[in-house]
Amino acid sequence: QVQLVESGGGLVQAGGSLRLSCEASGIRFSFADMGWYRQAPGKERELVATITSIGSTNYADSVKGRFTISRDSAKSTVYLQMNSLKPEDTAVYYCHAELINWRGRRDVYWGQGTQVTVSS
What we know:
The protein has strands spanning 3-7, 10-13, 18-25, 33-39, 46-51, 57-59, 67-72, 77-82, 91-100, 106-110, 114-119. Strand 9 (91-100) and strand 10 (106-110) form a beta hairpin. It has no helices and eleven strands. The protein starts with a strand and ends with a strand. 0% of the residues lie in helices and 55% in strands. The model has no long low-confidence stretch (mean pLDDT 97). By secondary structure, the protein is mainly beta. The protein is elongated and about 50 Å long.
């Protein structure tokens, strides 16, 4: 069974911080490219940050300088450290995993999401 389980969401005031965690199971985590997406009500799901299997990162312009994505292979976990949070960061945040399976095809997995609410 493949599972991506997010945690760490919650309610925080503007300017505050949260750290999201995504624990992966059932996949070869060390080979997977990982990422975080978010979706606000009535809006399309958007990319927040990604980290490849070798640690290369990229971020949406809206979060650069505020968010940091990282991974811990020993724990099969990817993190999203969110600082200087703004109300516009309010969304459901989803963990994403992508890897090439033994047949040479792309496998994509999603977590169930965790709510982040930033108040004014």
